[in-house]
Amino acid sequence: MATAAVCSGGKASAQGRTDDNAVTQAEDAFGFSVGRETIGIYGPGNARGFSPAAAGNARIDGLYYDPLFGLQSSLVESTSIKVGLSAQGYPFVAPSGIVDQSLRRPESRLGASIIANADDYGGKGLEVDGSLPLTGRLGLFVGLNAGTTVFVNGTDNFSHTESVIGRWRPTDNIEVTPFWSMYNDYDDESGTLYIPAGSFMPTVDRAHHDEGPRWADNRFTGTNAGLLTSVSFGKNWVARLGAFRSSVFNRHAYTHLLANEQLDGSAERILIADPPSHSHSLSGELRVTHSIAEGPRLHLIHLSARRRDARREFGGSDSISFGIGSVGENVSAAEPDFEFGEQTHQRVEQMTYGIAYDGRWKGVGEISLCLSKANYRKLTDIPVVGQVRARSNPWLYNGTAAVILSKSVNVYAGYARGLEESGIAPFTAANRNEPLETILTQQKDAGVRIAVTKDINAVVGVFDLTRPYFGFDTANVFKKIGSVRSRGAEFSISGKVTPKLNIVFGGVLLKPRVEADADALGNIGSKPYGVPTHIINLNANWQTSLLRGLQLDLGVSHRGRQPATTDDLVYLPSRLNVNLGMHYGFRIARQTATLRVQVANLFDNQDVTTFGPGIFGPKGSRQLLGYLTVDL
User: Fold this and answer.
1) How far is it, in rounded angstroms, from Cα 580 to Cα 538?
2) Any idea where the domains of the chain sit in the sequence?
3) pLDDT tens track for 357-416
4) pTM for the full model?
5) Which one, of 422, 458, 307, 467, lies nearest residue 372 by Cα?
6) What is d(CA 627, CA 585) in angstroms, rounded to the nearest whole number?
7) In the 8-state DSSP scheme, what is residue 23?
8) Engineered SS bond to 169: which of 93, 137, 559, 576, CB 3.0-4.6 Å?
């Protein structure tokens, strides 16, 4: 968890990076990021025990988007996680939550920001972005960054990103926003993953040491491009179109394993190599909205058509064993000649039509209803086996309601049924990197929002989410093995405690339960892999009186114990993490600047984390990092 905060609050802009402040800009504690600041109990990879990103619930400015490669940070102004009350009035919500990303926009005046960063691991980088107005109605935003990232496992990489966003307003009623960004990653060592031979936590290599072969470097390119268009027409009609292309090209990829690790730290060293692969997805949404004002009541009607056409290739891997070794020993073997097999090719097409209604009655409440019909097709061309087809045409629906009981108290309740993705099979599975089947999920939730003071809001809610559960079978294939029902409670308290102290405090308590399929083989635990008993986060930002422009910030998080294997025989212990930092706002040559310094993982907890059921790696160690931001 990153602590947040720089100078004063307010909306961040493409050329005002010194003002990025997640603590003062976040509306709740459920997950928010702006610039390099990230806070909240949820994120794109975890919301209420599931991953909204893996579920395919990404949005750009509220419109449907299927990312095979995540949006580059230079394109994104802010990201928020929509669950519970924060999703009230959000059309076509999904049971596992929504990851809504707000795209940057060129400013109407010339300006730029420069960010230089470094840390005591050895990482360093430089980022430059800014706006170039061409005419009164046409402008460009350009972002460039490059740098070296050094990881706790001793690996590093060099990467650079180029981004361009345009903004054209031919009339007051039309706005067109095209964008393009490319991320290139070089010399990204594979690192080492550890698989114990029994029901125990493995020994992992010491921090900042890479024991894998030096030639096993990953190399890939991720590209995102798209077009956002908004047209106002007639009386209270708005049409919005989002069309996107996301692709990733893996030139070469490796996975280094210490498999069947014994209690004494000995294990078999295995290296898996993947052939070059190229996957891409075309996706988007056309939405037409009509608003009807009726005194204190506002009615919004949305008509939506969403589509994706995703093509992936995977498989064909080769592997080599370096024999038995011990944790911490360097691999000195030369690079072999790998023999790759044929790859599996998969195409997924999905078309979803929907209608949604959102009614808002001032001083009374709000109600939202959505109904969609999905047409899903998947064609998988498997070497030797041949073509395998799958299709589904489910009805999807959701409804939410909020009632204003008083000026300070709102209550809400909702239900949603969605068609979601399940991510991909882990590195060690027999069907490694295979996209898993699309699933039907459902969720019920309810809660209350309270305005504690005019500057502090609190939200308390409960939820009940059901979806299929995936794990390893006896043939080491990662597949559906049951269903999981996740029930829990969450809370958020956020706002300004004093004129100079802001807090974002939140938590979730989880009680998930797995029910194995009747034909599932192997030992399947009653608790789902990777879901902790609780997550508690506190972020605070204090504008001190000690020195003008100086702010101190604190981030504290506590994660409960969580199953690390499908059979529940190994658990990650609970973990407390504390981050301390400061921001100092000042001026350089009459330009606004902010110096950010932070100590992450203050107590140097060097435990392990998981990369899939029964797959382990190092978590992290204390890190000193800093960056200097200058707005020009």
Assistant:
1) 12
2) 17-328+339-631
3) 999 999 999 999 999 999 999 999 999 889 999 999 999 999 999 999 999 999 999 999
4) 0.91
5) 307
6) 12
7) H
8) 137
